[in-house]
Amino acid sequence: MSTPTTARPRTKLGGTLYRGREGMWSWVAHRITGVLTFFFLFAHVLDTALVRVSPESYDTVIDTYKNPFVNLMEIGLVGAVLFHALNGLRIVAVDFWSRGPRLQRPMLWAIVAVWVVVMVPGAFFMFKHSFEVLFGAG
Amino acid sequence: MTTAGVRIDPPRSGSARRLRGRTNTELYAWLFMRVSGILLVVLVLGHLFIMNILDGGVQRINFGFVAGRWASPFWQVWDLLMLWLAQLHGTNGLRTVINDYTRKDATRFWLKMALYTASAVVIALGTLVIFTFDPSIS
Questions:
Q1: Which residues in A lie closer than 8 A to residue B52 (C-beta atoms)?
Q2: What is residue B3's predicted lDDT score, i.e. its pLDDT?
Q3: For residue B5, is pLDDT > 80?
Q4: pTM
Q5: Spelled out in words, what is the top-level CATH class assigned to the domain B22-132?
Q6: Does A52 sit within 8 Å of B90, measured CB to CB?
Q7: What are phi and psi of A100, to 5 degrees?
Q8: Taking a contact as any Cβ pair under 8 Å apart, which residues of chain A between 45 and 74 contact chain B?
Q9: Tell me: domain A19-133, CATH 1.20.1300.10, correct?
Q10: Residue ranges of B 64-93 with Cβ closer than 8 A to chain A
């Protein structure tokens, strides 16, 4: 038989909106995906700015992205941005929708479901070319 | 009422006093994150879907592709809007992260200076490139 004291901290954490369990972990994931996207954007604007230097310098840098390894990182980036976007909409719902705070947990599982449904075909189509390069019949 | 010369402020009177004469910057920053976030869901997810899936991903990208795309004012405006909103959204996000994790005032100050400098460079460079792009550059 468990003592009441063991159940207490869990109730305390589970009773708050963001701290502990899914609310907190979605917040952690939101931060990580956001910071990751920030650094990507920095690199992305710099490499695109090369179109102002010369077509050759732009094409040279872009060609270094045309391999399966960078393709995998692109899929990771799309996954991160998609989570950040969906969870951001959930945060807006929690903040502005009267029923949002009560439904924050089911809304998280809903966006996770949407993420999986979008990412499975998304990753398939994004990796299609790399798959052909790696394993395709020459 | 004071007793025996000891003055005890009512709860939260300190923060209430501090609030007077202060600006609502944090409120506007909070609101901006939600408004820009909703717009970015459309702009960024649209950008990722078009570029990575509909247009065949980075394999197809070269100077000519960019030239064809920016020949249309629609995509110029799309990219400009996305650049500004994403960079400001990301800068405010990282400002929050820096505020949360830095312990020394000097560290906080210099990290934010680096952040604002990087941000200004990205916005200025990106804007310049979109407005001065020359498809016939040699």
A1: 74, 78, 122, 125-126
A2: 53
A3: no
A4: 0.85
A5: mainly alpha
A6: no
A7: -55, -55
A8: 45-46, 48-49, 51-52, 54-55, 58-59, 62, 65-66, 70-71, 74
A9: yes
A10: 64, 66-67, 83, 86-87, 90-91, 93
